[in-house]
Write a structure and sequence with these properties.
The chain has 369 residues and is an alpha/beta fold. The chain folds into 2 domains: 186 residues, 3-Layer(aba) Sandwich (Rossmann fold); 170 residues, Glycogen Phosphorylase B (Rossmann fold). Helix content is 48%, strand content 16%. Helix 9 links the parallel strand 9 and strand 10.
Length: 369
Amino acid sequence: MRVAYVVGTVAGGTGRHVAMLARGCAERGLAVTVYGPAGAGERFFRGIAFVPLEVAGRPRPARDARAVLRLRRLLVRSRPDVVHAHGLRAGALAAIALLAPAGGRRVPLAVTVHNAPPGPGPARAVYALLERIVARRAAAVACVSGDLAERMRRLGAADVVLAQVPAAPAEAPGGGAVAAARAAIAGAGQPVVLAVGRLAPQKGFATLLAAAARWQGRDPCPVVALAGAGPLEAALRAGAETGGIRICFLGQRDDVPALLAGADVVVVPSLWEGQPLIVQEALRAGRPLVASRAGGIPELTGQDGAVLVPPGDAIALADAVLSVLDDPALAARLSQAARERAAALPGQATAVAAALALYQRIAGLTAAS
């Protein structure tokens, strides 16, 4: 089987997920090619057959038309059995490229929807159009959370499944690495509240700062450690300085397992998420977790794997964090529940097997028709 993956501008979690699927399918004997922006190829797809396809991050009619025409030519030449696009922009462009039979035959399209609609504004109307194209043209739509799956069904998608987006396995960090990571953040006896993610509005770090402002008078005062980079860094730094909030900006880190192991509480304050890797990593590390009841997070944590709070509610977030810090028994219960929940989550082999089954199913349906 020949599989073509189509990606647009991808962030860390999506890029790693597609790379995992591409490598897993190649290891199982499939002929795999990835089409996407050159930057994505350099960051995520080294060692995988990759063909540059510039998919703009925002609607650009002329550029989008060129991308559709180039993708169609590439697909006619490579003759894939299945195309799997990731993200609504890549999915819609692939759907349009496949409107006419490629090489005299219909090629089935699977699309994975990774994000919820944006808030009110012009982007929301564009997103709605992309959703309708994908819902009506894709042979199958995989969604990273149950709310997205229900949304795509309402839009008319006939075959909707829940995508499996597992975190990569990681070795347990050594004691020295954990001690060094913690010592660089806080002094002896100071609780560490860790958050990890791209510094972007969706991640809800402004809510975390507002929550942290509520515990600044405590002794010892919890220190917020924020690992990640992104467009909101300057604004978050300014907000922390104005509010006198104890926060350590760690930047982009490659020692997240050590940071997790050294944290007293892990916080995921996102306004919306699919299946965030940091939630899975925190569960696997057995860390007490406080997270938003948003998107696919409750599906990952279950009822007992985390304390869940309404997204955007700084008071509830602060109260939940302090309840864990002040109650060692609660922290211990959360740690145990996190490990048990992590053991029940699907791994990468299961995710690749599910993708293969999907490809075989939609390819078989197309051949039968």
